[in-house]
């Protein structure tokens, strides 16, 4: 199992997805995938325009980022697309996992 940072996803038993933000030989840093997307986009007019174009009515910010994860999963499940989705329990057998907390003062993902 070779997991690639900023490409592969992990899925837990509750259906939550995690982006691998950093990968070394035996260690992974993971973060909730919707939060990963949210913290890697600037809040500006371009983002507001994308959200307004996608949803006909007002929508909570989190909905947009959760939908980005849903779209990413759909793309990853299509044949020939890069990236894999791994069961987090299987990954734990081969890697040490470090989850980036959402309340961390230095929440920087790039």
From TrEMBL:
| Highest taxon listed in the record's lineage | Bacteria
Q: Can you name this protein?
A: Uncharacterized protein
């Amino acid at each position: 199992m070779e997991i690639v940072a900023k490409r592969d996803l992990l899925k837990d038993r509750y259906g939550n997805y995690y982006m691998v933000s950093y990968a070394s030989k035996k260690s992974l840093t993971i973060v909730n995938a919707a939060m990963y997307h949210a913290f890697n986009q600037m809040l500006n007019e371009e983002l507001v325009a994308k959200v307004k174009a996608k949803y006909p009515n007002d929508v909570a910010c989190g909905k947009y980022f959760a939908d980005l994860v849903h779209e990413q999963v759909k793309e990853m499940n299509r044949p020939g697309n890069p990236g894999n989705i791994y069961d987090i329990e299987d990954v734990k057998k081969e890697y040490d996992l470090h989850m980036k907390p959402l309340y961390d003062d230095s929440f920087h993902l790039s």
